[in-house]
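User: I'm curious whether this sequence folds into something compact or stays loose and floppy. Could you predict its structure so I can see for myself?
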Amino acid sequence: MSLGGAQTIIKAVFEKLNDDPNLYLFALRKKDITIEVDHPNIFVFDSTAKYSFAPLKEMAKLIREKHISVLHCHLFRSEIFGYLLKKFYFPNIKLIFHEHGQIVGSDLNSKVEDAAYVGFKKVSKSTADLGIAVSNAMKEHLVERASIPEKNITTLYNFVDLKKFKPEDMLAQKGVYRQQLGIAETDFVVGFAGRIIRRKGWRTFIDAARLVAKENTDIHFLIAGNGADRDDMLALIDEYDLKKQVHYLGYVNNMLAFYAALDCFAMPSHFEGLPMTQLEVMALGVPLITADGPGMDEIPQDGNDALYMEMKNPADLAAKINKLAQEPQLRSFLCDNAMQTVQEHSLDNYVKSLYNIYETLN
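Assistant: Here's the prediction. I'll summarize afterward.
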């Protein structure tokens, strides 16, 4: 599968349930950059075509041969295939659509794509047996924008794998990026990670870095990720003359090493489904600054285990960064509470909830 939040969820669940022979994963196409999934029942359609319906027959064959009773679809194209399979092949199969955030708007700011997605949701709502929303905000958007009855949607928050994201493992890699970038141990480092696209708030992050850098040259900014706006972001860093303090790392495979370099993490997104990154930094004890927007203000609470920033407000983000840089006791307070908060959002608890959902459908 390709990289992304939905794919990360699926990978973690399947590897957690590696010994369950009744689970099957079908990826609709090949991608250039992929993540591998360690499970015996993995199927990938041998094509890179994005809009082809060719996988439909192969999926139908798999469902028949394996007597699959629940079809759990992640992301738009998969939902289209699920709809067609139930409508024309398997009327009795239980169909689940898992909403990760597209109901709020298109990542590419495409009105056409957004209208197509919302229209599909309205057309398919009588065919799908259940909608899973990754946050209450996404549930509300499904009700408001797609007119799906609230009783047909359940909220299942995303999770963090507490066995993978352990503070002690992160600390073992603490010096990796600081040494590479020439950042002193005494300097304060702020992180941003995600796709470099408009809704992730990268411009807010760079604008805030510019404000902070005017007052303090000992604060550095690390950016991990790739995306359509990459060149625009790099051009803005050049325009602001921030290369000494803003470090772009590109795609980072070892996120523990990235997190280990940070003194706080900023999430200035315009909206999220329910961000995995948010839970990861909380589990690792990295102080979190998060926008107060949809999908981001449901698990962390302002002043308790995170600091909220006003969405699209670089000055507010800069003020919160300066506050954390100046108040180590506040950082410790937020981190201690955050590590307690995420305990209930573990992978183990997620899998139990997921199985309960499947059982209620059968």
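Summary: The radius of gyration is 21 Å. The longest strand covers residues 94-99.
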